[in-house]
Amino acid sequence: MKALELARKVALLSFGDRLRDAAAAVLRDGVCAAVVDGDHVIGLLTESDIVEAVARGVSADAPVVEAVDKPPLLVEGHEPLWRVAEAMMAAGTAVAAVTVGGRFVGVISAADMADAEGQLAEAARFSELVGSFAPPA
After folding, report:
1. 8 Å CB contact between 98 and 44
2. Over 70: is that where the pLDDT of 56 sits?
C-alpha cells in the first residue's frame, strides 16, 4: 500500500488565517490543518501544536503562521507505508504531508497507517479461513 492511498484531505489555511480557525478545522477534520502557500505546504497544525502555541501566549486571533514552529515532514505519494512509518519515527512525528511531484495532496497519520495495517491483517486472516473451507482440487 502506498502513502497516496491513505492520504486524507484536511483544511487548508493561509498565513493570515487565525489560530482560532485552525482549531475549529482540527476539531472538524480530526487530524490537523495544513498551512499552505499555493500548492506547497508550509506547516501542519495538530491539536497539540495549537495547545502548545496558546500555552506560549499566542493569541487565538493571531495568524496561524505564529503557531508553525517547524516545517512538515514531506513524503511522496508513491512511497510504501513502511518507508513512511520509518520517516515518521525518525522525525518524531505522527503526521506527514503527502505530496505528488512536490504538490501537497493531503496528510497521512500514524493512526491511519495502524488502522490500515489492522484491516489488511484481518483480510488476510479471513482469506486463510475461507481457503481452509475450500474443497480439495
Report:
1. no
2. yes
